[in-house]
C-alpha cells in the first residue's frame, strides 16, 4: 500500500485492515513515496513521514513499514516497486496492490500502468453505493481493463492480473484537510492516531528545525543548495532534499536538523512556528544566497 502518508490517518489504516481481512492477506506493507513523479513534493520531510507511519501501524502484527521508495534517490514509480517485490517474492506468490478509488481512476496517467496488472492483483476500495464503472466516472480505457479482469465466479487465482472492487467503510478523511486543520490550530483528534497527532513528541526526532524564507522560487532553491554545499564541505551528513522541482517549499534532511526553505506565502499558510510552538525558536535573518 503506497502513498505519501502526509500524514497517515484512519482512512489509510481502516482500508488496510478491511482489505487484509477480506482478502486473507498475511501482511500489508506500507510503502511511503519518496519523490512521487505524478504530484508535487510532500509537505513533510521523508524521515518524518516514515516515523509517522511507523508509529501509526505499531501493534498490528500484519502491518509493516517498507522504506525502499524513500531511500531511493530516483522518483518513485509503483511499477518499479512492484517489480522489485515480485523479484523478492518469486513469480508464484500472489501480490496485491491496494488502492483508493480516486487513485485507481487516475491509473491510466501512471508510468507503464498496464504493466501493473502483470505484476499484481489490484484491489480498489469503493464507498458503498459508488458507481465506479459508470462511463462518466471511469475512463473507458480503464473500464475495458476492469471488465476483462474482474473474477466472474469463485475466488481470485494466480499471482497477478485480477481487479477487485471492494466496498469499504466510508471514512471521508483527507490528509490535505488534516494539514489545513492543523495550520488553523484546529483539532485533528479522531482523524489520525494519537501517536501521529502528538506532534510535540514527534519533534523530538530532531534536535533542531530551521525555517527560512526566499523571495522567489529561484532563491529558495539557491538557499537550500547553499546549505547543502556548506554542510558537505564541513563533512556533515546530508540526506534527502525534497521540493526543489517547484521551489515553493524545499526540505533538507540534515539528520538532527531539518531545514525548511519556503516562499513567504507558503510559510504564512502553514505557520510552522506556531504549529511546532513547543520547540524553542531561534530566528536567523538576512540570509543571503550566492547566485
Task: Note down, in words, how this protein is organized.
It is a single chain. This protein folds into two domains: 2-167, HUPs (Rossmann fold); 206-291, Beta Polymerase, domain 2, CATH 3.30.460.10. Helix content is 36%, strand content 15%. The chain has 13 helices and ten strands. It has helices at 10-23, 46-57, 68-71, 78-89, 101-105, 116-119, 140-149, 175-183, 194-197, 199-202, 217-233, 264-270, 272-275; strands at 2-3, 28-32, 63-65, 96-100, 121-126, 163-167, 208-213, 241-242, 249-253, 257-262. The strands form three sheets. It has a four-stranded mixed β-sheet with strand order 7-10-9-8. α1 (10-23) links the parallel β1 (2-3) and β2. The longest helix is centred in the last third of the chain and has 17 residues, at 217-233.
Keywords:
291 residues, 2 domains, 13 helices, globular, four-stranded mixed sheet, single chain, disordered C terminus, 10 strands, Rossmann fold, Beta Polymerase, domain 2, alpha/beta, three-stranded parallel sheet
CATH fold type of the largest domain:
Rossmann fold
Query: Going by CATH, what is the homologous superfamily of the largest domain?
Result: HUPs
Q: Output the radius of gyration.
A: 21 Å
Mean pLDDT, as a whole number? Answer: 82
Estimate nothing, just give the exact number of structural domains.
2
Walk across the major sheet and give the strand order: 7-10-9-8
Order of helices and strands: EHEHEHHEHHEHEHHHEHEEEHH
Structural class: alpha/beta
Shape: globular
End-to-end separation: 42 Å
Number of helices: 13
| Percent in helix | 25-40%
- State the low-pLDDT regions, or none: 199-206, 278-291
Amino acid at each position: 500500500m503506497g502513498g505519501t502518508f502526509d500524514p497517515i490517518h484512519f482512512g489509510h489504516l481502516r482500508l488496510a485492515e478491511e482489505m487484509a481481512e477480506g482478502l486473507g492477506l498475511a501482511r500489508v506493507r506500507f510503502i511511503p513515496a519518496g519523490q512521487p513523479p505524478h504530484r508535487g513534493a510532500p509537505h513533510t520531510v521523508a524521515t518524518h513521514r516514515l516515523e509517522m507511519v511507523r508509529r501509526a501501524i505499531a501493534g498490528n502484527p500484519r502491518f509493516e513499514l517498507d522504506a525502499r521508495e524513500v531511500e531511493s534517490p530516483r522518483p518513485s514509480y509503483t511499477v518499479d516497486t512492484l517489480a522489485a517485490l515480485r523479484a523478492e517474492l518469486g513469480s508464484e506468490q500472489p501480490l496485491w496492490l491496494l488502492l483508493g478509488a480516486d487513485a485507481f481512476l487516475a491509473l491510466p496517467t501512471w508510468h507503464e500502468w498496464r504493466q501493473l496488472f502483470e505484476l499484481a492483483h489490484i484491489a480498489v476500495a469503493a464507498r458503498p453505493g459508488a458507481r465506479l464503472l459508470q462511463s462518466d466516472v471511469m475512463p473507458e480505457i480503464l473500464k475495458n481493463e476492469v471488465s476483462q479482469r474482474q473474477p466472474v465466479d469463485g475466488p481470485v487465482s494466480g499471482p497477478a492480473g485480477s481487479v477487485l472492487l471492494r466496498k469499504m467503510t466510508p471514512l471521508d478523511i483527507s490528509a490535505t484537510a488534516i494539514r489545513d486543520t492543523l495550520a488553523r490550530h484546529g483539532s485533528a483528534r479522531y482523524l489520525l492516531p494519537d501517536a501521529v497527532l502528538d506532534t510535540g513528541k514527534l519533534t523530538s526526532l530532531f534536535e533542531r528545525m530551521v525555517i527560512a524564507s526566499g523571495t522567489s522560487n529561484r532563491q529558495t532553491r539557491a538557499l537550500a543548495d547553499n546549505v547543502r554545499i556548506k554542510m558537505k564541505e564541513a563533512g556533515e551528513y546530508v540526506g534527502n532534499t525534497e521540493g526543489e522541482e517547484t521551489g515553493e517549499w524545499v526540505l533538507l534532511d540534515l539528520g538532527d536538523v531539518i531545514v525548511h526553505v519556503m516562499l513567504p506565502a507558503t510559510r504564512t499558510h502553514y505557520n510552522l512556528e506556531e504549529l511546532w510552538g513547543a520547540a524553542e525558536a531561534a530566528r536567523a535573518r538576512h540570509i543571503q544566497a550566492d547566485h
